[in-house]
């Protein structure tokens, strides 16, 4: 569609500038946030916080988890909560899960993510979806110009912003708006619809490159112009991977990486190698993509003690319906 003066996608993208000197920053004012609704996502969140800890991120780490989970050694949930707290310096905050049970259960609890708007003990929080991998810390985002919300474009969709990564300035007033929006939500509207409705025309836009790339991008053919942001650059999967900071798993019908996937669906979903004249095959994208999944499983086992086939990996391939925001790449 032709842009017009009310089109939020004509607004300038945030310029990511160098952070102030670390010695001048009170990092306790900032936090990466995770929300947990069940055991599967608890493990994902612990993995994400382990990565931030390993990468040397200086901001606080806050986990919002169901008050029904008790941080003790009597259960898997309790052990993981204590592990996050003791090994990765995560602050634990029990909460009541926000859910609209009349809607599709796969995303019915996603409103809980929006409790980040109520964490007013912080000046800014960075909410990250846990079905993702942090490749580099993003501490520099906390020092962007003031805005109630900053988020990247959902570059794979038409005129949508992505809620996979949300930079939020918590406040009583903004959380009140969020609560009202949740109460008035219609079927098929979840966290992404809410933040687009409230902030789509009035937010700071983060560059999706390098702050929000989908695993499905590595399956696509063609020039990848939507992600690259131009028509002249040649797609180089290794270069893109090296510069990326946040990788989100989106490969429908491939299950999320903690769920079992049989070889047939894996082979059908995995990227194919590209022919390079007489030089052979270029399998870089395929190797990277396969590595995303194998590395996630290996880290899950190492961080959470999760072995394939136990209660965290018992759901079948067809347990996950297609999200309306799923990325379906062009494969030709």
Description:
There is one protein chain. The protein has 332 residues and is an alpha/beta fold. The protein has 2 domains: 26-207, Spore Coat Polysaccharide Biosynthesis Protein SpsA, Chain A, CATH 3.90.550.10; 210-319, no CATH class. The chain is 30% helix and 14% strand. The protein has 10 helices and 12 strands. The strands form 3 sheets. Strands 3-2-1-4-7-6-8 form a 7-stranded mixed sheet. A 3-stranded mixed sheet has the order 5-10-9. Helix 1 (39-55) packs parallel to helix 2 and helix 1 (39-55) crosses helix 10. Keywords: Transferase. It comes from Lachnellula cervina.
Quaternary state reads: single chain
CATH architecture of the largest domain: Alpha-Beta Complex
Number of helices: 10
Termini separation:
25 Å
Average pLDDT value? 87
CATH topology of the largest domain: Spore Coat Polysaccharide Biosynthesis Protein SpsA, Chain A
As a percent range, the share of helical residues equals 25-40%
Give the helices and strands as they follow along the chain: EHEHEHEEEEHHEHEHHEHEEH
Low-confidence stretches: 1-12, 307-318
**How many structural domains does the protein architecture include?**
2
- Across the major sheet, the strand order is 3-2-1-4-7-6-8
> In angstroms, what is the radius of gyration?
20 Å
Structural class: alpha/beta
CATH class of the largest domain: Alpha Beta
Determine the CATH superfamily of the largest domain. Spore Coat Polysaccharide Biosynthesis Protein SpsA, Chain A
Report the strand count: 12
Largest sheet, strands/sense/barrel? 7 strands, mixed
Q: Approximately how much beta-strand content do the residues carry?
A: 5-15%
Overall 3D shape: globular
Region (Disordered): 312-332
GO molecular function, one term: transferase activity
Protein name: Glucose N-acetyltransferase 1
Organism: Lachnellula cervina
């Amino acid at each position: 569609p032709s842009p017009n003066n009310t089109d939020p996608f004509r607004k300038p993208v945030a310029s990511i500038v160098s952070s102030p000197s670390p010695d001048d920053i009170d990092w306790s004012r900032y936090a990466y946030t995770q929300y947990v609704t069940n055991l599967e996502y608890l493990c994902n969140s612990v993995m994400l916080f382990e990565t931030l800890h390993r990468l040397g991120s200086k901001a606080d780490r806050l986990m919002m988890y169901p008050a029904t989970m008790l941080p003790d050694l009597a259960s898997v949930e309790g052990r993981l909560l204590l592990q996050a707290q003791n090994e990765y310096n995560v602050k634990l905050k029990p909460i009541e899960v926000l859910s609209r049970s009349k809607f599709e259960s796969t995303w019915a609890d996603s409103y809980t993510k929006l409790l980040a708007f109520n964490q007013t003990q912080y000046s800014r929080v960075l909410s990250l979806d846990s079905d993702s991998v942090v490749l580099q810390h993003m501490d520099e985002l906390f020092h962007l110009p003031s805005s109630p919300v900053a988020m990247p474009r959902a570059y794979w969709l038409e005129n949508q912003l992505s809620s996979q990564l949300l930079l939020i300035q918590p406040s009583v007033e903004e959380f009140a708006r969020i609560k009202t929006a949740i109460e008035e939500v219609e079927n098929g509207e979840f966290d992404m619809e809410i933040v687009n409705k409230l902030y789509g025309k009035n937010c700071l836009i983060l560059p999706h490159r390098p702050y929000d790339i989908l695993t499905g991008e590595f399956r696509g053919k063609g020039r990848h112009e939507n992600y690259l942001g131009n028509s002249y650059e040649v797609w180089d999967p290794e270069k893109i991977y090296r510069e990326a900071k946040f990788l989100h798993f989106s490969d429908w019908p491939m299950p999320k990486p903690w769920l079992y996937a049989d070889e047939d669906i894996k082979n059908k979903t995995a990227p194919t190698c590209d022919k390079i004249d007489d030089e052979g095959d270029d399998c870089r994208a395929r190797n990277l993509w396969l590595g995303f999944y194998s590395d996630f499983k290996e880290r899950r086992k190492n961080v959470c003690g999760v072995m394939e086939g136990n209660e965290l990996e018992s759901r079948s391939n067809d347990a996950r319906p297609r999200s309306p925001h799923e990325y379906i790449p062009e494969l030709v």
